[in-house]
Each structure stands twice: as structure tokens, then as C-alpha cells.
Write a structure and sequence with these properties.
Blueprint lengths: L7 H44 L9
Length: 60
């Protein structure tokens, strides 16, 4: 069945599905970037603590 034979309902369903998939991809990419930024910040803090052990303010 070619797309020229699709009804209005099928065309709208396709458009809706494409939009939803796009939103899901956007949200997942945003979440992954946020988590990677958190990990990078933790690594930088860890490196700074190793370089300056006298300035360590973490609880032990």
C-alpha cells in the first residue's frame, strides 16, 4: 500500500508517532547529557581533592 492510498487517520497517526518518537529521543539525550555532566563534575572534584588533600571538606 503506497502512502497516496492512506486515509487522513493513518497520516495523522504517522505524524503523531514521529513527533512522539522525536520527543522521546530528545528527552533521553537530555537525561544522558545531564548525567554525564554530573559524572564529570564528580571526577573533577575527586581530582581536586587528590591534588589538595589539606582542603578536603568531605565527611568521612
Amino acid at each position: 500500500m503506497s502512502t497516496s492510498q492512506w486515509s487522513l487517520t493513518e497520516s495523522l497517526m504517522l505524524a503523531f508517532n514521529v513527533v512522539v518518537i522525536g520527543l522521546i529521543i530528545w528527552a533521553l539525550r537530555r537525561r544522558i547529557r545531564t548525567k554525564l555532566n554530573e559524572v564529570e563534575a564528580r571526577q573533577n572534584q575527586s581530582l581536586m581533592r587528590q591534588k589538595n588533600p589539606d582542603d578536603d571538606t568531605s565527611e568521612q
